[in-house]
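Lab notes, practical 5.
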Amino acid sequence: MPSLVIAVEKAPRISDREIVERLTRLEEGQKRLERRIDSLDKGLNNRIDDLRSEMNSRFDTIQWMFGLFTPDAMANAEKTDPGGNNPCDA
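Output from the prediction step:
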């Protein structure tokens, strides 16, 4: 007759005190992670704000440059009639 052998490993007993200690360590670790994430989030937000400020500054410079060149372009366009003839050439 075949025999069936089943091996069962007996789990070590863990006391309530050990459970509480491990849970406390887990909670403390979770709090440290939350503080680190908050710190990283603030740092990232500051970097994004700095980049946004830099971009706005560059766009302001581009707008200023367009403002410099636009009056000249308009003045030159007024000298030329719609047919493309420049009255100053006559």
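Observations recorded by the TA: Residues 16-77 form one domain. The chain has a mean pLDDT of 84.
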